[in-house]
Amino acid sequence: MGNVTTLDRSGTDIEALMARIGADARAAADVLAMADPQAKSQALVAAADAIDAGGADILAANRTDLEAARTGGLSAALIDRLELNEDRIAAITDALKAIAAMDDPIGTVIAEWERPNGLRIERVRTPLGVIGIIFESRPNVTADAGALCLKSGNAAILRGGSDSFHSSRAIHACLVEGLASVGLPQTAIQLVPTTDRAAVGQMLTGLSGNIDVIVPRGGRSLVERIEAEARVPVFAHLEGIVHIYVDKSADPQMAADIVVNAKMRRTSICGAAETVLVHRDAVATHLPVIAEALARAGCKIRGDATVVANVPAATTATEADWGREFLDAIIAIRVVDDLDEALEHIRAHHSHHTDAIVAEDAATVARFFAELDSAILMHNASTQFADGGEFGMGAEIGIATGKLHARGPVGVNELTSYKYLVHGNGQIRP
Fold it and tell me: Which domains does the chain have, with CATH numbers?
């Protein structure tokens, strides 16, 4: 029996389409590896200007996506991730300009040394090649991912979710306009033009060796599928099961301010706090302040027996609530006997994304930092700062929770590899 051709709803041959996209991306990557750094920056500034000028069209496309999302029953958290407004468009253009202004990483000497035999060795940054980014809901990822890949000399193949299809297309058109304005290949940043899931399957095969790495950005089911099926390396980005431990040494008002911001600033992002652990000696002094502040902000509390006994508005947490990414105005609070119990709980339930401690005792903070294995650990700061832009990276493709190559916010430098340049003056090995 011959191969069965997979067609999308328009009759497009998905395998042929993706093969062409892969080949075009590889050709573009070869050009980008040698591209003038100034041209890459100018392309990003031009793209930002195009997004600014085309804001009305982008918002109109976004309204189309939002209407379909609401009709389809998409959750409030995913609708918040999907929705664009003037402020969010301005944030996209600001991120593009920030990335454009960053130093170009390609060719940067990371380290250099000289051997006793006179050989001089340099380790220099190089592009990864072609990066496939598979993401859900957030149309701003189109701009962030495309810009970071371009700045780091990589070609990008973007496959957004069906819910953000029209928004992503409108943003992508502006990126292409920026590339064209400086004569860089318009195929340097490609958006898969179909919502058919078969396109994802094709990307996971590596497109005949044309994709060098896959970056998933979405829920657990997406990431798990990609990790299970991908035939190329994956920068894993898992859900944000984010914890805050409030120690007995913490300032009560600081703890309340941090917890409320970490949970409620934007409940739909992966850096939003989902569980708060309170030291038992802080129940009388800290828990009421935190609970009252959360209630004023409109957050529902699910707690253990001690929390329910001390917070009238709290309901009893189920076992499933520990380790749940609510992505909503809901938080789980548990009382722990000490730091050891807090660490044990976090290790059992977190996703190695971001965890925080609010404390004034330096020894307690040092133990928290030393004994927890999360991509990002924070002290006396909101977990909403778990973001590449806030780290000074301009933007991010995601928060990598694996341990190989990239970890934490994946920015320009994390999208590079390196090679060794060895300089001699006639040495031969005995």
Answer: 14-237+410-421 (3.40.605.10), 242-385 (3.40.309.10)
